[in-house]
């Protein structure tokens, strides 16, 4: 029996297993693959969504870890966390630059429920 799956691409961050556990605690099946998994392997899993985890690298590094760009052509939502979000930005044509002050830890957020992101 094939079931819905969220695929987590592991970029080496310390919270990767915690992310998987939280997804599973929400009663969603997930699997973790290394960031350099082939597009064939990813397609074989038929994910309903993909999460890019954080990691210790910087997207500004010459040899920064990257996944296959075809991930963005699968037609499924992709969530980037920390390094994963920066990587998505760079791979999709955005700019990432160093901040003058590094930030880490808890942050308060305000969710705009009227945003198109939450429309469906």
Molecular structure report:
- The chain is α/β, with parallel strands linked by helices and 120 residues long.
- It has a single domain (6-98), classed as 3-Layer(aba) Sandwich (Rossmann fold).
- The chain has helices spanning 16-25, 39-45, 83-91, and strands spanning 6-10, 30-34, 49-52, 78-80.
- Strand 1 (6-10), helix 1 (16-25) and strand 2 form a beta-alpha-beta unit.
Please tell me the overall pLDDT: 92
What radius of gyration results from the CA coordinates? 15 Å
CATH names the topology as: Rossmann fold
- State the total count of DSSP E strands: 4
Sheet with the most strands: spatial strand order: 2-1-3-4
Q: What proportion strand?
A: 5-15%
Helicity range: 10-25%
The low-confidence runs, each spanning 5 or more residues with pLDDT under 50, are none
Structural class: alpha/beta
